[in-house]
Specification:
By secondary structure, this protein is mostly helical. It has one domain. Helix content is 68%, strand content 2%. Strands 1-2 form a two-stranded antiparallel sheet.
Length: 360
């Protein structure tokens, strides 16, 4: 528990005091956000606001993880390092996308194929490595079983090890792409994605600690959790939570800096990694329900326009629909945060309820 607290505090402090330094650097370099002309007209005032702030979140998380282990003299786990690899790798893809937008002064960075290739490469490496490195109990960081609050009977390796690995890699790519793009689509208003991410990371801090206390490796029983490194995963989640909290000070309306794709892809990657390695792959759909809802609004809008020629929303993603209805940006963000909190509460409730039922 001490390492979790250290990780949260250090990442918060580094992000809180490191962000203004990055803002000054980006301003000097002229690295400002390019605003789409087809977006809400109120966003044109944000043109030139420094972007790529997600670099602070990633670096603060990495540094806090290192400090927490040095102070508590703990050896980093494979699980923790894999999630941080996924976070940093997805952040790098987002950084390249942001840099191209800024350097070429356009709203499009990497081509869709290039962006997808980068995300797929990082997610594939993560997935392959997650099925390796068994510990003394022969547990690997990830499992070929599809999971909800723990592994379900559905095994992707039903027809052999090789096919199981291939199917797991595909499944992991779906989860990573879904979460990273979900956070990316949510990052359209000041502080919206950052605040929602704080809540989801906080839920994984609680899940990791609970799984550590009820782990099969030292507390066997019918209701124990087959997660390899739950405590270290709680530390990683605390790093992400603290870094987002510190960044939110500067990202809240009116934002002094945007996280950009550097941050949104990194945060989505970290949440996907936590979901896969804590064996809560389907639960993240509920915990990150706000991201899912906003993603669905885009899917519905595109599908409706292509099939009927009509739009369901005035603009997608969903937050922009309410902007065009006349809602103030701060009002939308706060109400969406409330929705995000309700989804997190529902997810944690289901997680605990399953344990209670299993215990009974």
């Amino acid at each position: 528990m001490k390492a979790v607290l250290i990780a949260a505090v250090v990442s918060l402090v580094l992000s809180l005091f490191g962000t203004p330094t990055l803002i000054r650097f980006l301003v000097r370099q002229g690295y400002g956000q390019f605003i789409r002309d087809d977006g809400p007209t109120s966003h044109h005032t944000k043109r030139g606001t420094p972007t790529m702030g997600g670099a602070v979140i990633v670096l603060s998380s990495l540094a806090a993880y290192l400090v927490a282990h040095l102070v508590t003299v703990q050896v980093p786990s494979v699980s923790g390092l894999l999630v941080l690899f996924l976070m940093a790798g997805m952040g790098l893809v987002g950084f390249l996308d942001d840099y191209i937008k800024i350097s070429k002064q356009r709203s499009l960075g990497l081509r869709s194929g290039q962006k997808l290739a980068g995300q797929t490469l990082v997610a594939t490496v993560f997935a392959v490595l997650a099925l390796r490195f068994p510990n003394e109990s022969f547990r690997t960081p990830a499992s070929t079983f599809v999971s909800f609050v723990r592994d379900t009977p559905v095994n992707l390796a039903f027809a052999g090890t090789v096919l199981g690995v291939i199917l797991f890699v595909i499944w992991a790519n779906v989860i990573v792409a879904g979460t990273s793009n979900g956070v990316n689509l949510t990052d359209g208003l000041d502080g919206l994605a950052t605040g929602a991410s704080v809540m989801v990371f906080a839920s994984y801090v609680l899940i990791g600690i609970w799984q550590f206390n009820q782990n099969c490796q030292w507390n066997p029983g019918t209701k124990c959790y087959e997660v390899r490194d739950p405590h270290d995963l709680a530390i990683v989640a605390a790093c992400g939570m603290g870094a987002c909290f510190g960044f939110l000070w500067w990202n809240a309306s009116p934002a002094k800096i945007f996280m950009g794709d550097t941050g949104s892809l990194a945060l989505g990657g970290a949440l996907a990694g936590l979901a896969i390695l804590t064996r809560t792959e389907l639960l993240v759909v509920i915990l990150g329900g706000l991201f899912v809802t906003i993603t669905l609004s885009v899917i519905i809008q595109v599908a409706s326009f292509k099939t009927t020629g009509k739009r369901v929303f005035r603009m997608a993603p969903l937050q922009h629909h309410f902007e065009l209805l006349g809602w103030q940006e701060v009002t939308i963000v706060i109400r969406f945060w409330i929705i995000a909190g309700l989804f997190v509460a529902l997810g944690l409730g289901l997680f605990y309820a399953e344990w209670v039922v299993a215990a009974g």
